[in-house]
Design a protein that fits this description.
Length: 103
């Protein structure tokens, strides 16, 4: 299979990683009730790929990942920055760390 030259099909990947402490969760069901709407907001509202990356069996901790691929870095930057601000305003007291990287 022949591959196209990278310059013909430019693609950039943006990744937003969010580490949250969910002190209000008392069960895995509580945890799902907290993180599911956040994952869905990323998927539906921003067309991001979203997943819980780590701490699946821990009740009060989660590591979420959101990703977006596009030919325009500016589009990735604006979408992920807007979503990052939304998360920071809604989950401010729960955020252990949040990082955005574009490759």
């Amino acid at each position: 299979m022949e591959t196209a030259a990278p310059e013909l099909y430019p693609a950039h990947l943006g990744v937003l990683i969010v580490d949250l402490c969910l002190s209000q969760a008392q069960s895995l069901k509580d945890k799902r009730r907290i993180i599911k709407p956040l994952l869905q907001r990323g998927i539906r509202g921003y067309q991001l790929s979203a997943s819980e990356l780590n701490y699946q069996s821990k009740i009060q901790r989660t590591l979420l990942g959101f990703a977006l691929i596009s030919g325009k870095i500016s589009y990735i930057q604006s979408c992920l920055e807007e979503f990052k601000r939304e998360i920071q305003s809604e989950y401010e007291e729960n955020i252990l760390s949040i990082s955005l990287n574009i490759i």
